[in-house]
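Title: Prediction job returns without error message
Component: structure pipeline
Severity: low
Priority: P3
Assignee: unassigned

Description:
Job completed but the reporter wants confirmation the result is attached to the right record. Sequence as submitted:
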Amino acid sequence: MTSEAIATVEACFKAVGTRGLERALSHFTPDATWTIPGDPALTPWAGLGTGRARTPRKSDPLRSPRPQPPPRDSSALTGSREIGESPMPTWTSGELNLIAKADELEMAPRRGNGTLRRPVPIWVVLDGEELYVRSFRGTSGGWWRTARTTHEGHIRSGGVDKDVTFVEVTDSETNDRIDTAYRTKYGRFGDAYINPMVAARSTTLRLLPR
């Protein structure tokens, strides 16, 4: 077999492999006779073909559509993200250290119209690798009401400047640790400031970088 013939056969098989019927048939000479093995009574696409004239039936493997992947199962979700997707952004150790060492964090929640509220200084604490804030004025705090409504905003602390997402925290064990974190970090300011922060457990928000 000549190199030209080998190249023709390889091109034909390549076209068949990608279901390129027209490309495969373009390599056939008008007087070529070809056969798909099998019993036509049992295998509809089996049989004899001549040149480029034969049109395979709809059930032919060359005409059959590629199998489609099954629909995604909602059980294959982790949180609000699907398995295989990029992980959600996280704080770097450097960012956590800088913010945790700062006494204050400038909080600017995003309003419903997309604009940011004027930044207000608040306290921030670290628990593990997560940052948390609370409202000193409880649920009547203006910045907190906006943050709870839109769950988006911007923070600046310790030289870190970030857009963030606010996640409400209701878990009692987490809130117990946050109580301890506030007492440990800000206890030097006295009960007049610490007690309202501990009492404001219902306003706990976790800060997630965006």
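Comment from assignee: result matches the submitted record. The chain has two domains: 1-69, 93-209.
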